[in-house]
């Protein structure tokens, strides 16, 4: 059986010594997450942050848009509008598309939703996303997943044909779907504990001391990134059977 061809659109390139030089980039984190599954993928990474995009929605079986510390609201990003156009093309073609963090917000904005700065500042740490919709790709039917959050922007409105499927205490629209071809999540299922601690420490000066302390304390909780990885694989392929695993890092 041919492997699933996944195009990863990378919208971040961290050049910092503390984070960028110490850890693999965003696309590699997603590849590491998905490579733990029984299902195998063929990957092609597009440096969308540098203006690189797939030729068409038919270039791969499906696509994934990574997270980024950049703001999706920044209209000075030279590649942003082209990314939005590609998202709309995938939507029109009903090509499977997953967005995480920045990708989650980009999909919402491209399809006519609204994104805004959070009134409470950063939402950071391990947070439970409660999934109140029963979707076929949700292997194991776990109603809530503990996942890493790190965002200052948030989706505040969605088009009428998009369904909110997950909420958290710090994010009302934490996950959404459109029909059977779009899945988006504000959280970072691809993060792991060591990386999250490094990013948190690197960004400490940008948040209040209370926010930092609460985020740091939350990292004692186990996370469910590998469960969401199973969901991603099931969503991309349309497979609806299988079990779940735990990600207690």
Principal-axis shape: globular
Query: How many individual helices?
Result: 6
Q: Give the N-to-C terminal Cα separation.
A: 32 Å
CATH architecture call: 3-Layer(aba) Sandwich
Report the count of strand segments. 11
CATH fold field value? Rossmann fold
Query: What is the CATH homologous superfamily assignment?
Result: Class I glutamine amidotransferase (GATase) domain
Query: Helical amount among residues, as a percent range?
Result: 25-40%
Q: Under the CATH scheme, which class?
A: Alpha Beta
Largest sheet: 9 strands, mixed
What does this structure look like?
It contains six helices and eleven strands. It is an alpha/beta fold. It has a single domain (4-237), classed as Class I glutamine amidotransferase (GATase) domain (Rossmann fold), CATH 3.40.50.880. Strands 2-1-3-4-11-10-9-6-7 form a nine-stranded mixed beta sheet, with helices on both faces. Helix 2 (80-93) links the parallel strand 3 and strand 4 (97-100). The chain is globular, with a radius of gyration of 17 Å. It starts with a strand and ends in a 12-residue tail after the last helix. Residues 240-249 have low confidence and may be disordered.
């Amino acid at each position: 059986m041919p492997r699933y061809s996944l195009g990863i659109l990378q919208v971040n390139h961290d050049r910092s010594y503390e984070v960028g030089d110490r850890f693999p980039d965003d696309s590699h984190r997603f590849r590491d997450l998905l490579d733990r599954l029984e299902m195998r993928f063929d990957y092609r990474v597009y440096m969308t942050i540098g203006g690189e995009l797939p030729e068409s929605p038919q270039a791969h079986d499906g696509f994934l848009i990574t997270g980024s510390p950049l703001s999706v609201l920044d209209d000075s990003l030279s590649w942003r509008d082209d990314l939005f156009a590609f998202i709309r093309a995938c939507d029109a073609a009903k090509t499977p598309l997953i967005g995480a963090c920045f990708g989650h917000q980009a999909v919402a904005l491209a399809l006519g939703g609204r994104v805004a700065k959070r009134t409470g500042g950063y939402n950071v740490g391990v947070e439970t996303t409660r999934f109140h919709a029963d979707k076929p790709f949700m292997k194991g039917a776990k109603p809530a997943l503990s996942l890493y959050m790190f965002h200052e922007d948030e989706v505040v409105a969605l088009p009428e044909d998009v369904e909110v499927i997950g909420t958290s205490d710090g994010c009302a629209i934490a996950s959404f779907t459109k029909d059977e071809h779009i899945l988006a999540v504000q959280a970072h299922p691809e993060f792991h504990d060591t990386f999250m601690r490094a990013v948190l420490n690197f960004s400490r000066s940008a948040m209040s001391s209370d926010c930092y302390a609460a985020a740091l304390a939350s990292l004692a909780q186990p996370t469910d990134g590998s469960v969401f990885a199973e969901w991603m694989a099931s969503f991309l392929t349309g497979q609806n059977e299988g079990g779940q695993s735990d990600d207690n890092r």
